[in-house]
Amino acid sequence: MNDNLPFPEENSQGLSLPDGNISKSELSETAKTYVTNAIEQGEVDIIEIYVKAKATIELMNEVAKAARFRAEDEVAAAGKEGVKVFGVKAEVASIPTKYSYDHDIGWQDRKEKLDEAKEELNAYQDAMKQAMKYEGVAMEGEIVEPAKVSGGGETIKVTIPKK
């Protein structure tokens, strides 16, 4: 690993950033190799690896936040071409303009109608979910078809305490 990078590493398991230029494919390959080797060697608890990875993401997000303002000044000073570090380009990017409409009466009226339509749609969707448990549900004299499952599943949730 390049000693100039302030990234955590696990020397005993060989986890480090690739030397030289950084690319998503190199990072992906490094991660896959690390996990495969850890499993094959049986020396590391896979849940421990997962929790450490999630904690490292939080750590690096905080490092990025802390460095952002100083880095913004340096990147801005470089102009339109930006700066390249380890093969990664950093450049100033525009943030989309936001607009406020809520001061206009016409907009407020339309928003209210939209909100009412959303409430009606949500009630209909709830009836469709209920219909999944039964052979259909009547809503205001209308038979509602059951909803179809289109996603969902399980994941691992990692909660890192604040202190």
Element pattern in H and E: HHEEHEE
Q: How can the largest sheet be summarized?
A: 2 strands, antiparallel
Described by the principal axes of the CA atoms, the overall outline is flat
First and last CA, distance: 30 Å
Q: Which class best fits the helix and strand makeup?
A: mainly alpha
Mean pLDDT: 84
Describe the overall structure.
The chain has a two-stranded antiparallel ribbon with strand order 1-2. It has a two-stranded antiparallel sheet with strand order 3-4. The chain is flat, with a radius of gyration of 26 Å. It folds into two domains: 1-96, no CATH class; 105-144. Helix content is 48%, strand content 7%. The protein is mainly alpha-helical and 163 residues long. The chain has three helices and four strands. Mean pLDDT is 84; it is low at 1-11. A hairpin with a 2-residue loop joins strand 1 and strand 2 (88-90).
Summarize the structure.
The chain is mostly helical and 163 residues long. The protein has three helices and four strands.
Write the layout of secondary structure elements.
Layout: H1 24-41, H2 46-77, E1 83-85, E2 88-90, H3 105-133, E3 137-139, E4 142-144
Antiparallel strand pairs: 1-2, 3-4
Characteristic key phrases:
single chain, 163 residues, mainly alpha, 2 domains, two-stranded antiparallel ribbon, 48% helix, disordered N terminus
